[in-house]
Design goal:
This protein is mostly helical. 46% of the residues lie in helices and 8% in strands. The structure holds protoporphyrin IX containing FE (HEM).
């Protein structure tokens, strides 16, 4: 954990495996939360920065992330990926045929948006969905959620009066945000009516689970209305708004970086493909129970997040005077010499997720297999830790494992530019530097709300079944 920019201290959670000590005392809270609550999400109950309120409110929202929802996430991811293969014409490729995909993040953003929209709100949105199906809100749901998501930084950072300025972009952002909320209110109203008519049993999306949980929460043990803490429509909109945005770019960019790592590390791609051949023999329709049989795929996602965490710095502040305990010397494994650090109430702190690789062996190497052995779980913090950790973690894991597995099962992934291509920058370089340059290019990042890929382009080569070798290197 960082107490200041200069003072890189390890998170108490991660070193001592005792996150409950720090979190349950209510010592840490999320600064990010305050940004959200003040600026944009008055209805977002999870984003309270008061720990004592956060816990019961989590209990209302957490049941939404149930096994039924994860199964829906899996099924949705499956059909969205198959739909993508079709819409891009990849499914018609002959074995050995090759296609260039110059902008991988654009594809992964489309996929995760589709999964979120369907598994969160029951909106049937695949990559082939017509974007012009706007109803009365000035733009379609897809356009609204995409535009809000692309411009989330401005929505969170700018004060409300900024939207009164005659700046076309800001006004479009505001229109998109209003449209998105209007769609969400409409979906909630429809769902409530369906619940009243007893027609919701077949739907297991997140919105449904939240409404049901909310209804149960307001119902007393004897079945009567308890008048307690159920979610109002504004709170439901606030929560679904945050789910949509917290879960879109984070998952999409992580997926894009995982594809980049596999394009660079052909040996790990072959290792992964062995698992996929086993789990998905020809003509097998993927089902949610396959998820537990894909530990290598999950390990690739974890290793990607360890090296390229979507959230690079998790802001916190101390809600009471706190002592951080001894810091063992991470370089030689010896215990430290009583370096206790006093953190006064109100101090701004943060988990520096990018700094955490120093707690791993060969920290800079891409070694997904490390996650198949015993590892220090507290040193893996891309989803944060403790009571405020990412509530959408498994949602994203199920989605990304499914998408990555299906893509790699059918296509071999190579870096877009290779020796002999028309890429002038690379043609001038000798063989030994080419792979390094390609890796640098694929893993480069640019500023964004989450760690954003700069340029991930790959070549997809349709696999000949069972051939684990790289087609051309
Ligand atoms: C690779 C994917 C993801 C990563 C790396 C990630 C990471 C994070 C991190 C670091 C936090 C901050 C926790 C803290 O303040 O201590 C967070 C919070 C949150 N995430 Fe995620 N997330 C991902 C995907 C998702 C998805 C798919 C959803 C929803 C469907 C989601 C919903 C949320 C919510 C609602 C919070 C706020 C939790 C709270 O305030 O208690 N996230 N996430």
């Amino acid at each position: 954990m960082h107490v200041s920019q200069e003072n890189g201290l390890k998170s108490p959670d991660s070193r001592y495996g005792n996150s409950s000590h720090f979190v349950s005392t209510g010592s840490w809270s999320s600064r990010l939360s305050i940004l959200f609550i003040l600026n944009h999400c008055p209805g977002y109950v999870l984003e309270t920065h008061q720990y004592t309120l956060h816990l019961p409110q989590t209990q209302v929202v957490a049941p939404g992330f149930s096994e039924k929802v994860f199964e829906l996430v899996w099924d949705t991811s499956t059909w969205i990926v198959l739909d993508l293969f079709k819409s891009e014409g990849w499914d018609a490729m002959a074995p050995g045929e090759e296609r260039e995909v110059p902008n991988v993040p654009e594809i992964t953003l489309r996929v995760t948006l589709g999964v979120l929209a369907t598994a969160s709100f029951g909106a049937p949105l695949g990559p082939q969905q017509d974007k012009e199906t706007a109803t009365g809100h000035g733009m379609s749901f897809v356009e609204a959620i995409s535009y809000v998501s692309e411009n989330i930084f401005w929505l969170l950072a700018l004060p409300k009066f900024a939207y009164k300025l005659p700046i076309a972009k800001l006004q479009r952002i505001q229109r998109a945000d209003r449209a998105l909320r209007a769609y969400m209110h409409g979906m909630i109203a429809t769902r409530r009516e369906e619940i009243l008519r007893g027609e919701v049993s077949a739907k297991h999306d997140l919105l449904n689970a939240l409404i049901e949980s909310s209804v149960q929460d307001t119902t007393g043990e004897d079945g009567s209305a308890a008048g307690g803490g159920g979610l109002s429509d504004d709170e439901l909109v606030g929560n679904t708004w945050i789910f949509a945005l917290a879960g879109h770019e984070t998952s999409a960019h992580s997926l894009a970086f995982a594809i980049a790592y596999l394009a660079i590390h052909q040996d790990k791609q072959a290792w992964l493909y062995e698992e996929l051949l086993d789990v998905f023999p020809a003509d097998h329709t993927p089902v949610y129970s396959d998820y537990a049989r894909l530990p290598r795929t999950l390990a690739v996602i974890y290793e990607t997040l360890r090296l390229h965490p979507a959230v690079v710095y998790i802001p916190k502040y101390a809600t009471e005077d706190t002592w951080l305990p001894d810091e063992p010397d991470v370089d030689d494994g010896e215990e430290g010499e009583g370096k206790r650090v006093f953190v006064p109430k109100g101090t701004q702190c943060g988990i520096d997720t990018v700094g955490l690789p120093r707690y791993w062996k060969n920290p800079d190497s891409f070694l997904p297999e490390r996650f198949l052995e015993e590892y220090d779980r507290d040193a893996f913090a891309p989803f944060s830790a403790g009571a405020r950790a990412c509530i959408g973690r498994k949602f994203s894991e199920v989605e990304n494992v499914c998408v990555l597995a299906l893509l790699l099962r059918h296509y071999h992934v190579l870096p877009l530019s290779s020796k002999g291509s028309s890429d002038e920058a690379l043609d001038k370089v000798d063989d030994t530097r080419i792979n390094e340059l390609l890796a640098e290019r694929l893993l480069a990042t640019k500023p964004g709300v989450t760690l954003t890929p700069k340029e991930i382009g790959v070549r997809l080569v349709k696999r000949r079944d069972g051939d684990v070798r790289a087609p051309m290197l």
